[in-house]
Amino acid sequence: MKMTLALAMAIVLQAATASAGGNAGQPGAETVCGSISVTLRDGSTLLGRPFDLDALPTLSGIDKVEIPLTQIVAFRMKDDRVSAVVELKDGSRLAAVIPLDSIRLEASIGRLSLPLAEIASCQVSTAVVTSGNVALASRGASVSGVFDGGSSPALIDGNTTDYGGVPGSAHGASHGSAHVVGLPPSWVVELPQTYLLREIRVLLWDRDQRFYRYLVETSVDGQMYRTAADRSEGEWRSWQKLEFSPRPVRYIRLRGLYSSRLKGPNGMHVVELEAYCDPPRDGRLILWNTLGSKTEVYESAVGPSGTYSGEGGRFVEGRFGAALSATAAEMHYQQPALVTFPKEVISVDAGCMEVWAKLEGVPKALKWGENPALLKIHDDNCSYILHLNGNDGSRNGGKGGLCGRAGGHASAGTGVFGTWTYEQVLGKGQVEQWHHYALVWDKNGIPGVDDGTRRIALFLDGKLNSQKWRTGARPWVNQLTGGELRLLLNHHLAQGRVALDNLKIWNYAKTDFSDRFVEGIIPGLAGNPTGPPGEFQVDYAGLRWDLMRTGWKVEDGRLASQRYPRPGFRYGHSANGRNALAITGIGDRSWTDYEVAFDFKMLPANREFFHAHIPGDSRGMSVVFRAKLLSESWNQPHTCYSFGLRPTGSWSMGVAEDYYMPGYGWSATRKGKTEKLAKGKSESCKDTSEGRLRLRVKGNTITVWLNYEKLVEHTHKGAVVDPIRYGGFGVGWRYESMGWISNLDVKKL
After folding, report:
1. What's the rounded Cα separation, in Å, for the pair 467 and 454?
2. CA 423 and chain centroid, separation
3. pTM of the entire structure?
4. Helices (H), 282-433
5. Are residues 244 and 213 in the same domain?
6. CA nearest neighbour of 25 among 127, 129, 131
7. pLDDT at residue 443 is higher than 90
8. DSSP 3-state assignment of 681?
9. How far apart (Å, rounded) are the C-alpha atoms in residues 482 and 382?
10. What value does the mean pLDDT of the chain take?
11. Residue 17 structural domain
């Protein structure tokens, strides 16, 4: 009798402390696992799979091996023999022809007993389970193979953002990528030890429209390789997520099979290879394009490059810098799309597309049809569309207003179809203003939207805008087989112009858009949140803030100070200090040249909050920037610039090094050095206590605008205090006055 088995098993031999989650490149606690490799006399093998210690297959005497029934999804018998006995959850199959009396299903103890007569050998090897990306040079991984220009380190250096080149150049992909031209690539990443991997990710160079075909294989000994992913057919671009049943891996081999750029197998550019025992579940920014010029379209800040047809369109003043703009005629469906991106930017099962848009000169009525479609991709079975429409034409009742479609059949809208106007959707007097739009989808339901079962939702200016959904449980289409993401399309819009700015696409159902006023997740910019905030921290507008002296809350899209001392802080003039203060990105060299802008409101003091002497009108705002050192106690050193503003319109600006920092300007003589830089008075804020402040620091030059009026442009020459060239940004209020900021924009220059 011969028996063919394909069964995945592994056991926990030794456990360290509980595994801790970490960032993609951060190691956590390690667990050592054992994998069983059983070779049968006919040459077949039992492969590795993780089991709890209690699930260890046991050898009872010499006659059987026991398999936990939790791994079995099918069991079939025929007559007095068993054929094609077991199908396992990982897709493998145990096939045999065994006399019925030789096999026993022990349901009471949850095990299947198999005869051992055909087993020739059994070997146990070890593998490690840990968190984070294990294919990093910083964690001991190495890479071998033939590379051009010593580029091999780029494959495992952890850098997935700083890469580029000039699209169209034969070596345009060289910067930041591992590459070879003229030879078929075959590269091997050797991990520092054997890991029980379940996912490999590969970032193919994606700054133009090229695609690749490739093969990824794994090995324990570097001699015998198993296929992890066969991508020898199709067109593969950008990030590749390769999932497989857990297996012991020490070596990962990447073989390039075809490059569309080189029209054959002799060349490949790869930005990064990552390997995971426990793949990260956090969301990833797939595409970020600022849409500010043709060059910016071709050179995405994150993700694949776009294409620009050159048939019409222009670039105008945008929400951040410049924006792509087109007339109704230029957007018509009979015209080529102005800007496109490859279909790989769409995560089919769950994702989010968000963009800023501005309509100008459009008619009052919102006609039936996509007028316009801001973003659209579709093939024969599947579509993802974000559009304004009087009637989207979907079954079970059409929808109107801001509409969307995802996954083939899921759709939603502001309300039911009918007679709509743009003003009904965007607000009275708001049609020609910049608005933030987002299409969100998840085939398993979007948490926090309605009852949690809705698979699609629209957001307008950060708030849910869907009140009508398509009913019925239609199947979710799991693949985009063709098409490309097109921007600015139009059915029946006869007049007007539409502008788009700052396109972002995510691979998860993002529903928090408080960061929409920040142009992007700026690589290396301090303040980007990592992990949960601390006890005296809060995340606002995509940045992490340290909270000093008073309480602070994020409410109604605002970062607002509260009328109570921060817990644990000794508040008072003779104690550790007064004045609310929130600061982000302090002391990090990545905060060099940047621009911030925000709306603000100064609120009166509450004398019940603190009974010290308070001047008649104590309102005042203090903005600190290029802050290298800030102490919570105001009697301890500070090193930063400061801009102070009073509701009378008076303002002042100064700089200090290791110096006392009051809530408004500089007025006291303490340890350290201080230098007054400029002062003045503006009518644009007088008697209003609110407005919009914009501050730019570039080199040693500081420019401040209040309500779009330039107050000052000053170059600090360092007469007393040396210029400060880096540091974070913060805002505070004078004495016990309160206030809030909102609509925060942050841009790295």
Report:
1. 11
2. 32
3. 0.51
4. 294-298, 422-426
5. yes
6. 131
7. no
8. strand
9. 9
10. 74
11. 3-128
When mean pLDDT is compared over 52-56, 120-124, 225-229, the highest value belongs to 225-229
Surface-to-core class of residue 233, CB atoms within 10 Å of its CB (0-12 exposed, 13-18 middle, 19+ buried): exposed
Same domain, yes or no: 206 and 347 = no
Q: Identify the weakest region by mean pLDDT among 346-350, 472-476, 501-505, 719-723.
A: 472-476
State whether 267 and 291 are in the same domain: no
SS3 content of the chain, % helix, strand, coil (to 5): 5, 50, 50
Calpha distance 68→57 (Å, rounded): 8
Three-class DSSP labels, 135-161: CCHHHCCEEECCCCCCCHHHHHCCCCC
Q: Which of 128, 149, 181 is the last residue of a domain?
A: 128
Residues 732/307, Cβ–Cβ less than 8 Å: no
Is 223 a member of any domain? Answer: yes
How far is residue 567 from each of residues 144, 547, 562, 732, measured CA to CA in Å?
55, 11, 12, 17
Collapsing DSSP to helix, strand or coil, 544 comes out as strand
pLDDT tens figures, 639-660: 889 999 888 888 999 988 776 5
Tokens 């340890």 sit on residue: 671
C-beta of residue 605 within 8 angstroms of C-beta of residue 738: yes
- Centre a 10 Å sphere on the Cβ of residue 637 and count the other Cβ atoms it contains: 17
| Residue pair 470/413 in contact by the 8 Å Cβ criterion | no
Q: Is the pLDDT of residue 604 over 90?
A: no
Q: What is the DSSP letter of 390?
A: S
Q: Looking at 282, 306, 322, which one is the last position of a domain?
A: 282
Q: Which of 369, 372, 373, 366 is nearest to 420 (CA)?
A: 366
Residue with tokens 């508040």: 571
Quick: pLDDT tens for 495-529: 999 999 999 999 888 888 877 877 765 444 545 56
Of 158, 75, 151, 143, which is closest to residue 113 (Cα–Cα)? 75
Q: How many helices (H) and strands (E) does the chain have?
A: 2, 53
- CATH code at 142? 2.60.120.260
How far apart CA 655 and CA 664 sit, in angstroms, is: 12
| CATH number of the CATH domain containing 487 | 2.60.120
Strands 111-115, 64-68: pairing is antiparallel
Contact 123, 37 (CB under 8 A): yes
pLDDT tens per residue across span 202-256: 989 887 778 999 999 999 888 889 899 999 988 888 888 888 877 889 999 999 9
Same domain for 659 and 589: yes
Mean pLDDT of 679-698: 82
Same domain, 436 and 453: yes
Q: Which two tokens stand for residue 569?
A: 């802080």
- β-pairing, 45-48 vs 8-15, is parallel
Number of domains in the chain: 4
Q: Using the Cα atoms of residue 509, residue 513, residue 514 and residue 520 in order, give the sign of their dihedral.
A: positive
For residue 246, the model assigns a pLDDT of: 78
Are 338 and 461 in a shared domain? yes
